[in-house]
Amino acid sequence: MSETDVFQQHISRQYDHELLDVRGRIMTLGGLVEAQVESAVAALSSGDVELARKVIEDDYKVNSLEVAIDEECTQILALRQPTARDLRLIVGIIKAIADLERIGDEAKRIAYQAIDLAGHFPKRNQLSELERLAESVRAMLRKALDAFARMDVDASIQVVKDDRQIDRQYEGIMRQQITYMMEDARSIPTSLDIMWSARSLERIGDRSCNLCEYVIYYTTGKNIRHVSIEQIAQELQES
Amino acid sequence: MSETDVFQQHISRQYDHELLDVRGRIMTLGGLVEAQVESAVAALSSGDVELARKVIEDDYKVNSLEVAIDEECTQILALRQPTARDLRLIVGIIKAIADLERIGDEAKRIAYQAIDLAGHFPKRNQLSELERLAESVRAMLRKALDAFARMDVDASIQVVKDDRQIDRQYEGIMRQQITYMMEDARSIPTSLDIMWSARSLERIGDRSCNLCEYVIYYTTGKNIRHVSIEQIAQELQES
Fold it and tell me: ipTM of this model?
């Protein structure tokens, strides 16, 4: 092996190591964001104001990790000048961390609603639908992170399909709360808190879908945003 | 001038041309998005269901232009392998077009609210605050696009400061509509439409701020997200 080859291999190994490192850090960010969503929803269910405050305080951890990974990616682009799949991976990561950071923002919004809601003492059964939606959304986020970690196209398509179920659950909560509000004006503040929280959860579902779209983009080179999932599945099957 | 120099200059000119082209296209996208917001708000004010439907239909134009610019940026990264400021510009553009596309989504959401609202016949004075918020947000988006076109840091800082005014207007509308809902249950559907529209407008304000943050990142190399605007202004003055 010539000296140049050895050097080339060394560079390449270091580069592989950098790519692995950045993929590891995005999983750390994903885990952190998932924990924030879990705590925010727990605070909402239990009326635990202290826990809600902790979610709001801890949002800076999500933000700093996102900025750090973003800088790392820009460094890799500048120094390694990746092409093809490696380039798509880095561009995909830059976009994915922006979505994760905004899932963190939605968790913070849910935490604010939890603090507000704790002052209104909602009836238990008013929260049960919201808790079911929260459970579906958390499962979806977890699957999206798994699919991203393994760059698994099939799992990604499944997550995008699951989003329709989330949308139906969300619409159900909205209709239900409007009925409660019309029946009893005293329930308006509680219903609004529940509606805003449901909206945040629905957005977390949307952003989990985005993660899966980057997986499909990375693996197939196809930008599937704004294309129906059936069309994607069909095309992938044919190719 | 040696042959290599001439060639180098040629490459460089073509590259400059590509950068100019991509900056031009982002302005086209910005103009399109601005027009969508304008039409959505006009549909809301006038109860023009046809106009609202046109906004919803035209959203695909925003989406396709965003995908095209995104691909153009990835091509430039792969072929030109830019570094330093050029790299920050391309990464900034990739992020900015994602924000513009989502401003387009918010315009579409406002258009859906406009169709719903047209069925409830709101009292004129119920819309006046919302129209004022819409005017502020549209002005802010326009300033943000101008600042982005000229990569103007001072103008960008001003836009980020203006966002506080938008937040205050938004909070005022929310409080006002809750009062209306509590006073008269019949106003609940109208008030909810107004609240959702106000929320979309407030989000458009947030995304306009994002554009300005990319300008500051491009020009100074500083990632100012999650940092107070006073701190930024201070640091830039000192440097």
Answer: 0.84
Closest residue on chain A to B95 (Cα): A95
**Chain A residues touching B182 at Cβ < 8 A:** 185, 188
Instruction: Round to whole Å and give the CA distance between A117 and A120.
Output: 5
As for how many domains chain A has, the answer is 1
Note down the domain range covering B170.
3-234
Beta-carbon pairs below 8 A across chains A and B: 61
Residue type at position B182: M
Find out whether A213 and A163 touch, Cβ atoms under 8 Å: no
At residue B84, the pLDDT reads 82
Q: How high is the pLDDT of residue A227? A: 72
Provide CB contacts within 8 A for A100, sequence distance 6+.
Answer: A26, A29, A30, A33, A62, A66, A207, A211
The residue to which tokens 């959401």 are assigned: B109
A148 vs A92: CA distance, rounded Å: 10
For residue B224 the two structure tokens come to 């100012």
User: Are the beta carbons of B91 and A94 separated by less than 8 Å?
Assistant: yes
Q: In this structure, what CATH number is given to the domain that contains residue A11?
A: 1.20.58.220
What is the C-alpha separation between A117 and A125, in angstroms, rounded? 14
On whether the CB atoms of residues B45 and B197 are closer than 8 A, the answer is no
